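Final paragraph of the annual report: two paired records, presented back to back.
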Amino acid sequence: MTTFHTVRRRTAVLLVTAMSVAVSTTIGAQTRAAAAAPAAHRPYTVTLVTGDRVSVASRTATTASVEPAAGREDMSFAMSVVGGHLLVIPSDAQRLVQTQRADRRLFDISELIKLGYDDRGRSTVPLIMEAAALPALKKTVSEHGARTTRELTAVKAVAVSAPKDKTASLWEAARNDRAVHRIWLDGKRQPLLDGSVPQIGAPAAWQAGYTGKGISVAVLDTGVDASHPDLAGRVVERNFTAETGDRVGHGTHVASIIAGTGVASGGRYRGVAPEATVVSGKVCEMSGCSESAILAGMHWAAVDQGARVINVSLGGEDFPSVDPLEEAVTALTAQTGALFVIAAGNAGAADTGTIASPGSADAALTVGAVDSSDAVAGFSSRGPRTGDEAIKPDISAPGVGIVAARAAGTEMGEPAADFPASYVAADGTSMATPHVAGAAALLAQEHPGWRGDQLKATLMGAAERTADNAVFDQGAGRVDVRRAITQTVTADPPSVSFGLQPWPHDDDTALTKTITYRNTSSVAVALALNLTHTKAFTLSTSRVEVPPGGTADVTVTADTRHLGVGPWTGHVVATAGETRVVTPLAVRKEDERYAVTLRHIGLDGKPARDYLTQIFQPNGRDSWFPYDPSGTVTLRLPKGRYTTATYLHTSATQSHSGSALLYQPILDVSGDTSVTFDARQGKPVRQSVPDRTAEAHGVFFGVSMQVDGASVRYGTLQQGFDNARIAEIGTHVQATGYVMSTWARRDSGDIGQDSPYAYYVGEQVPGDVLLAGYHRAFRIGELAAVTQTIHSYAPGQIARQWMQFSRDDGEVLGVGRLGMRAPGNRINYYSTQAGSSWLPQTAIGMPAGGDRIAGLRLTGSPFAPPAGSSSVQEWGAAPYTTAFNDSQQWVTRSGDTLQAVIPSVSDAGAHSGYDTTQSVTTRLYRGDELLDEQDWVYVAASGLPAGPASYRITQDTTGSIGGLGTRTQSIFAFQDPAEIFTIRYEPRLDSRYAVVAGTRQRMPVKALDTAGRPIEVRQLALEFSFDDGTTWQSAVVAKGAVTLRYPRGSGHVSLRVSATGATGAETTQTVIRAYRYQ
């Protein structure tokens, strides 16, 4: 048995957990981020490092569907939502993630979308791979179709760009090669932007002759505008990105805080070390900072350039394990003696333990931000460090309203009132960090032989402690370079972290550590020692004399036996005349915790090795994923109420297709306790359909419930019903169960494409019914028959359909996926339970490699057909227009944010979507101001003023759909998104999408709102063209229709309609080659 040592995770309440997902998919748009945050209602597809494709309906989705890569059709997938992040982990990756061989972010769908790593955002998966032998690793990478982009020698790794259609092969090779130590996502960190030079005492250092002359200070950032007068002639540059110049302005601002001359302001905005040399490593682009670029920049700055001080004003979320950036900081500090000065982060005071990585590295001098009064800035991240309660930040510096150089052509910050073209003011720990880096440069000039740890100790010891600021907010205090350059006594270590006093506390003892004071002067220094917190800490003496060139030890004792639980912090302040050495102290007395032992047993009665278990607090923010290959794992949890569940692999083969879901709704931890998850406790779950030739092609089942006022959902998805089981353990909680399955004829080709029928059946049942052993046999009379007619507009096309099963409140319970021929027909049978509905989606086009289809992606309206009914749905028929239906909210205004998805294609069956082969440009205006422009169907803008304003959305497309719709344009002018409407026209077309030449035909014309409902308009005009829009003729619109006379011969009809709505909103839509005449 292994004890699993837990740490606190900063996560939001986990409201929905769907564990163990397999073999199903839904249509997902290939989209990319817009100017505002990604749209909440916009679909995405993400290819994982394993080659599996995950589709979600939105970036906030709590469930997903998966297309396994070729050869992985029987793979199962674990899915969970943690802190708003959707994780989808294939079963062959679960153990690697749990043992930290694979980065969890590789399977964090929410994070991958946020980074722009979805399938529209990029065609490759960026990786950092660590191995014992880099030449062998590079050979493996090449053999499997990927490319090594750079060596990262500081961490014995390579950066890899893996094409998404090759990742499955690389994954299989890497996961089975024990010489590959770790596989990380090459993610992105962000620049941490959110009278300062005199505030830290720099003028005193200048007067003493220390200006940074001869010292190289590296700035790893967005680049530096070397043409700025304050930096001209003193910048050494290297670019580690594909983007040139400083297009953000962040790096230039940071560099000038360190070493700007202030010449453009007559010396007013002079940097801390105005004669230092700036070594600029451009590691950030406008979209963020690639981790592999940061690693390469660190090595270049420390090893190749020999920089004494390296400023890193960027970061990302820290986790308990050591990540490659933290590892590199530690390794390069030891190798070169450089001092890495790193921002603490801008996560703010709402939570503790928010220090960013790589500022979380031991060797880093981590910097928090204060204002001009030395009060800690509200945005500055707080300690302790995640995982071990260590003191961070180490020091603080001014970071509010900092005025520094403005890079040419950038808009970051607020222009300075006196020199707006040359300087901007900005907030952030990014601005605090270069103050400390500049101070380190002055100190390095004074002491040419000092290494980074000596610079760090001196700066921390000389800091100006503020009594009102806590240790985990300010570290040692605000940097004081005036004192640092005159101080001859330092403390080792510069901060003392006692860590955790674990519960229970009946055997606690006092903890002791030693502070060694070192005196570099030629005279003895007698230090008076004082503590700022005497309840938790004591000193072995109140005075100590440190001999010239020597050391003296003082013992610090942390004793929490008589104190309450929680963090206890303070400072040792050692003084002797003008000398003052400050050393921060911290210890945490752990809150009440108990051992929780989890045992996992398979269907064979033996300890299970393949499982995924999660524990979380329904009304808390912490979550745990304990694992041990023995099947038994123990973790220590704070006293309280939890809920827990496990997914146990139950297949007797390696197909990964069977699963048992065992859940305990309430786990009351008030003492040591144990839980046994035994797959044999699970009761079978099964559905069947009337046709005996059918087999299941995807099964969802699970339960949803309320636990302590929070919504909790557990569910599984697998290929079929074999070994599908579910059981509740412990205290019973009333739940609602759900089961959904997809069926097609056995041996009917690729995902059922040759099956003449399909069954999509779903049901919600009381949880007790599901738990008692569920078998639902559907009869043909209780199903609805819907004939699917798929139109094709080019030879060789194929189709796929997805059916989303949802409750009436919108919660998705399952998604079925099957292939079809194009053109083709099939009868779909649907279950008809009240309180649920189906949302259909269809892709029609050419095979594009793997399971991809290049062409139409259409979504229909949700429907709930009555039992025994029959109907027809036609997909992909012309004419193609821009029109909405009620499948989603297309255009929304929420607060100061407006988001719009304008479907570039709507077929004759009122299915709306887009075509992946078309070129699309969508723009959003406020008045004449362009707010956003995207080469896709989505636009958004934030920060909009309240009150009415004139907005305009335009969309232009090029590229035909079977020779039709070669060019379209839509213009929507409105004040309120609810005013937007489109125009639909309905000509009678034959199978070639043509009317009969030389005839006269009446064509209905309708105005539709954004839910696809007919509306009245004040004015509607229609024009038509038979020469692709070169000339136009007007048609009379009467009683909702126009009558057109078509010429003889053959050709195309183009249409242009314009209308004014009841509230004054205006719509103009043009389609070149809408349909044919012949």
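The closing record of the year follows.
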Amino acid sequence: INTGEMVLDFDVRYDLGTVMYDRIQITDGTDTIILGISDVISERGDSIRLNMDSLKAALVNNMSSPILKMDEGAVRFGGAHSAVQSVPIIGKVQVGVVIPDTYQASRHMVELSTEHFNHILERSDASWRLEVVFNDNERQTVSLLELEQSDIDVVIGNESLLAKSRIAQPGMIVMACCDASTDYDIVRGDPLFFSLVPSNNDALDATLAMMNDMGINRILPVYPANDRAILDRINYQAQVAVADGIQYGFSDSSEQIVSSVADAIASDLVMLPGVRLGVLLTSAHDTPRILEAAYQDRSLTTVRWFGLETHDGILDSSKAKFFAQEVGYMVPYIGVLENPLTVSLDSYMYGELGYAPNKTAFGAYDAVQILGLSILGDADIHNSDIDKFADLNVEANDVAGVISGISSEFGGYTTYAGLAEDGGLEAPVYQIQSVRGDAWVRTAMYNNPVDAKVGTISFGDAILPYIQYVAGEPLIDDVVQVGLLVHEYDAYEAGLAARMGLALLDGEYSLVVEDVTNNDIQDGMRLFSDVGIPIVVVHAPESSTLEASVHAQNHNTLIIGTASTGVQSAIQNDNTFRMLPSDMWQARALAGMMAHDNIRGVVAIYPDQTQAQSLLEGVADVFAGEIDMTHSYTDISNVMRNVTLSAIEMTERYGHEGTAILALGDGDDVGYLMDNALGTAGRINWYGSLRVAGSPSISDMTTGSINLAALSPTISGGGHAQLILDSLYLMQPPAYTSSLFEAARMAGMVMTQSDSNADIARALLPSIADDSNLMYDDISFDENGDLASYTYDIWRIDDAWIRDSIYDVMTGYASHIPIGVMVPLTGHDAQRGIQQMWGAHLALSAQNEILEQEGAPWRLSQRVVDTASSPIVSLGAARDLYNMNIQAALGPPDTVSVNEIGRFGSYSDFMLISCCSDAPDVYNSYVVYLGSTDVHKSQTILRMLGDDGVSNLLVIHDGSSTILNSLASDFSGHLNVQEYDAIDAHSRVVADADDTLSGMLNLYDRSSVGVLLLADHTDTASILGEALYQNNLQYANWYGVSTDGVLPDILYNPDAVATATNTNFAVAVPAIPKDVDELKAILRMVIGFTPSSDAYLMHDAATLLSTTIIQLNGDSTAPAVAEIMPLLAADLAGITGPLALENNQRLTLSHDIWRIVDGKWQLQKTIP
């Protein structure tokens, strides 16, 4: 779009030299451009590059939805003439990137953010994409000029690029990211400069705030002689007394500096009674040597020490590190927030780079998003359906004019990224970090933003909870610290799972990780005690957990472990809880799983460890067949030969189908063993324990033709558990990761509710566990502190790990029957989708409890697919489910998607139960619809108007509502209708409406005039906000109708709230059923906001579908479900009322009428 270059990509190679350009044209039906040979840059056989002149480029950019038309014979393929083709043109806006190679994490962040931004555009069927162009010239000034010559007006770079751009003056937008600080004087000096990097003054503000928070009333600066300005800044910004400080020169030794500090401290403490002194080290470079020298003088530990930024040199010196911990040395650090997206970013970058990214790199992700949204001109990327490429902001001044507003409305993914009018951060967020063990750990936050859970977002193909940020206050907020002790596992990957668990909690948590694989476990536990962390998650094998447990019992520390425990190790009423069932149950499950598969002879392979031996003995006690227990190993490379010989002997007695190998090592061990399984050992079934299931070390490449089954504690069949697993590492994690995830969540909740008191935590933990689960449907502990669960998921390896069945130790084997749940987890309907997913889950969980009690040989589970609020994606989701052999599904909530899926289902045997859409066009036996009809909504609106005496109505609608026809036929008064398009500016919409209403107010009594707004929640909020500045629109009552709750977007827009209050804006919403307080409370807790009727309607839809499948004894095929569902529905009552179906529609839903009172939605009445 910015350069006029076009690329024609061909799926099949064409014959070079055969292109007839006069048969290729670009048109929108009104204007047409015929291409010519002069436009060609190159032909490659699979593509043609064209560079149109400025006139042609401008004409294309101003076309409405341009397409490329190729007449017959425009090109040849293998000698044959091409057929006529018409394809839409996708526009690209280029953004330059000038980030040095040394900033690899930042460069990867830019690429990933662009990929995710375009992924959403593609799923929204948008006609444009963002493209980043890296320029790697060693001289940044040259890079800027080269990008300018390529007509690129927007550039992302590191902090130094601002100064280079100031010299080069290219007239481009430069957005700085990826550094710890910047010079705001440069940023403020140019209206095209912006920075997501805080200034040095911001860091000082954060340090002074934490000193004030700790009661420091006198500051002793310690600063180098070449930075006298820092003392002036401290004096200017501090609100307490500032000493003259200690100035030191280049030649001064660390001991001389520390001696001067000691003298000053001694003097102040003697001369100033009541003084609370804080030492402030201003040079991060010099800090390690100063702290190391201070270690020798105990008098220096009587005051608190602070700095302006972190320095890893402190961690490299044992003395500096010890002193820093002893005096509580604290520094501000650029404020990346712990949320699901940043944890996933960390995970992804760790996988790409092999190391954890520097936190400064995260700003690059937000930089791309802000610039992309500014180019679009809308903070909601889902409003990306532009009509013309010229509607996009491409010129530097156009982008600069909207960046501040867009960034503040967007809020940021990794931190609060709102930019002030001067181009700097509006409220820069800082982590307050201290040294804990061998790492910097977040202990508090400065300018912590206000957050709200507002649905979900797309992280590539993963779906993550979305947290919306608004600016915080310049105060210090505490962070709850949770300990994680790791032994013999990958500490970083374990930390990611635990961090994800904490990120999904309300509040701020920081994970303190101690990897003691090569160190003493007691020392690691002692660290947590020393820094006041009384609750520790221990991710380690049983023997290591037991060692940590001894320390915990002696030092009043609470442990939540992730290892299963043998019966002989269980101790009642100790301080150790475990997020896995006892090995007694695992042994019975392994034996039962093999018995179910008719295995009679087993060759066991196991590490020479107590727990493995104990587990195998437990299997042998309950297994009815023969087990060869002679193959333990300390050196895994030498074990398979003898195992193979034993397997041959077993097959001679029981045959290949009756013989199996039981491998009790971890995933790495079993992956190695299977990779080296030859002959008979490679042709019989293998079974694995809970450390095997889901292991990324095992794939279909590893197993070859071997059938492998492994078990893990049963995780929830709900979509939320599926989404969490998908997002943990953006790859298949080990199944036992779920126990670590839940353990961290529980530790965080217990820490908060017990105020970090171990005795209180021990008493509260069992009751908190009942409400803390996400991965498990139920968390409770037995008398030994083990997870009180007797059910295991059975995982089998195919193209990937598949969870295909359940083994219940008490009732036996049960298969999974998946139900599709197609809901919008991203896009403008995301809030609806997340509560519908949970509504379905709670209904299916209730049915599964009944199935379990009745001993049924199957259970129901959800398979969630995101429809992205798009009919195109919805249809693709239905096809995906169908290809998974799932023929019955719930959702989605929009009418267009239901129509598309209904047509697909009518010829593909695919059953859809939609709970919340308007009346569909497609009626057939494979579409069942639960919802309020247009006729009933129209009648509700008429009741509202009649109650208020409105007989003259202006209707403003977006063209998508189907209610208008019913309303027009039944409304007896005067009706004016104003339709607007998606591309119309809302200011123009309300201006036109104000003109129309002016005439109506002149003709009719004011009390009889009303405005009905039929639009989605985003447009409604925007139009109400714009209406505040139109006088006539404030003199009429306004009305609306909603299928997705009480339009929460309005409350985020103060102007919209003002208009809604002034005009008594009343919204009709499908009524929330009565007597559902318990269900409502559960939904409110898990989704983070008050549910609308969507959740309850989906609950009823899921109940209807599951009841039908139960009646069919587990048959979920579309023809069977379609045949008996209407018969069952006739006698079935849901929580929203009777479920009897008539013409595939629900006719009896009541509507609640809501108005905004004192800035909040309040229920006014219910219209039956």
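Residues 5-89 form one domain. This concludes the annual technical report; the extension proposal builds directly on these records.
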